[in-house]
Amino acid sequence: MCKLCVFAGTSEGRRIVDFLRQQDALITACVATEYGGELIEPAEKLTVRSGRMDEPEMEEFFKNERFDLVIDATHPYASAVTENLMTACLNTETEYLRLERGGEDAPESAVCFPDVPAAVEYLNGTIGNILLTTGSKELGAFSGITDFAERTFARVLPVESSITACREAGLKPAHILAMQGPFSVGMNSAMIKSVNAAYVVTKESGKAGGFEEKALAAMKAGAKLVVIGRPESGAIGLSFGETIELLEKRFGFTAKAKVSVIGIGPGPRSGMTIEASEAISKAECLIGAARMVESARPDQTVFEAVSPDAITDFIRNHNEFSRFAVLMSGDVGFFSGAKKLLPKLDFCDVTVIPGVSSLSYLCAKAGRSYENAVTVSLHGRDVGIVPAVRRSRLVFALVGGENGAGRVIDELNEAGINSVIVTVGERLGYDDERITTGAVSQLAGKVFDPLSALLFENRSPESAACGLPDAEFIRNADEKPVVPMTKSEVRAVVMSKLRLLDDSVCWDIGAGTGSVSVEAALMALRGKVYAIEKKPEAVELLKENVLKHGLKNVGIVEGTAPEACRDLPAPTHAFIGGSSGNMREIVALVLEKNPAVRIVASAIALETVSELTACMKEFGFTETETVCISASKARAVGSYSMMTAQNPVYVFTMQR
């Protein structure tokens, strides 16, 4: 097992320690102060050593520990420490690696100096308050500024040594700003304005040191930026990403990024859980749609992406970051992109953090329990809301697009479902949130925000039992040729034999008027039904019946089976109501698509009965059943009622 030492005086140093704690290695992290040690998370094979060392002490330490590699991740301005480390490693024949923080160009409006004395000389020729953001070490050198105690404010770490350095330099308590970063542009700008600073002094500390945020804040607040350049260390450094690559090659380590997939709730950061907010703060890079990232008010690097492939490609190709936060709207387990993303993140250390779903939020606003609610997502999906609302007491719907909520309400109103009570939640969680409640007929024709969710309350839902009355279907019974229809009594048996699930994919072959297609689609609301029919007049009736029942999960395929079915998705279930003499070929194709498919077929002609009997034997089904249904219906004959028999129908069930 290798043994490594990291001088982790910077955020990059702590990131290297985070990477190494995942590897099979013994790690020692050296920090100058106890406060620096508190910033490093403990681990089983990690030792944290606090306290400053001079060059002889470093040599003694390296001789005793015999490290395979020492990584110098100290501050770019700690040139004396870097020189001591290089000398100590050379004298003890210890391998040395410098991790160099990337630099950033100062804006053209800034004034730059090679060291503190040059900056002090410049500031002595100015008037106005000064905000020092260079830390506590150089305060003694800055004390040479004219009227130092009156003009100067120092932002330092909230630790005793920093406060002591401020007092020794002669700063008044009111001029000491003891704070721990990181600091956003807004926070920096507010601080500059609060002390009325005309000058902001900073080191060129790179992105990790918040240089960009300080530069932008100074410009925003109208202050002059004074930049002190980096000292020459004599060491050739590698970037964070290059350091990780070297460690992987040198010791066979594997970079495993920490990824938090976070449900941020319905709106802004105030609606996030504490766990979600903390994970966002710790992340070095935020990923998500523009609205998601904006809600987090980030100070970190941002990558706007929605598709799972784009997100995983970015994480895989950016090893300069070790902690990512992927932001998802609402809750990660409720109609979320996390479902497709998580399987692709198998190369990462993933934490899933739930959020407040729009369902729970809207139901809370409406004072309703959602334990029995039917949930439907219409966001980017062509799903029929009509059957769900007709058959359920409570339906929650996510909508998307321009006036998506208005279109759904209008659709229900046109379908005659106008007494259902609907609650519309617009911009949930935001300051301009609006909740509107009324009957469908009252809200029809209105325009709502694209960020809306809907809650439907139906006090008189329709029965979900199969075997709809024949009168529920449009027919051409008075025309020639008559389009056949599977009657209610037979259809009830067929549906019970199919055993559809709510997400089944069902083929209805020889669909006729579409009575079985409609019933199947009502059962498999989250699935898909393909109605295959060769007769043009039947296809038109199919379209009318599908439209009448408000179904969007029925695909109508015009043509003769099996040829018309070859490009369809594999079915989980199939009903064969008409075969045009191609029964064996149809069964063979269905089994080719899915060997475990459940097949139900109906037959009136004895020839069809014979074909199905042969198929049951030929294709090796392990579950088979044949039922003959003879139904009679009463009809009025004068003042009496007489039973009229329907044709007997054979129903075959087959499954391997």
What does this protein look like?
The protein is α/β, with parallel strands linked by helices and 656 residues long. It has five domains: 2-100 and 235-240, Rossmann fold; 111-228, HUPs (Rossmann fold, 3-Layer(aba) Sandwich); 256-356, Cobalt-precorrin-4 Transmethylase, domain 1 (3-Layer(aba) Sandwich), CATH 3.40.1010; 359-457, Tetrapyrrole methylase, C-terminal domain (Methyltransferase, Cobalt-precorrin-4 Transmethylase, Domain 2, 2-Layer Sandwich); 470-655, Vaccinia Virus protein VP39 (Rossmann fold), CATH 3.40.50.150. The strands form six sheets. The chain has a seven-stranded mixed beta sheet with strand order 24-23-22-25-26-30-27, sandwiched between helices. Strands 6-11-10-7-8-9 form a six-stranded parallel beta sheet, with helices on both faces. The chain has a five-stranded parallel beta sheet with strand order 3-2-1-4-5, sandwiched between helices. Strand 10, helix 10 and strand 11 (224-228) form a beta-alpha-beta unit. Helix 3 (55-65) crosses helix 4 (79-91) and helix 9 packs across helix 10 (211-221). The longest helix has 13 residues, at 79-91. The mean pLDDT is 90.
Distance between the termini: 54 Å
For the record, the CATH architecture of the largest domain stands as 3-Layer(aba) Sandwich
Number of strands: 30
Helix content: 25-40%
Structural class: alpha/beta
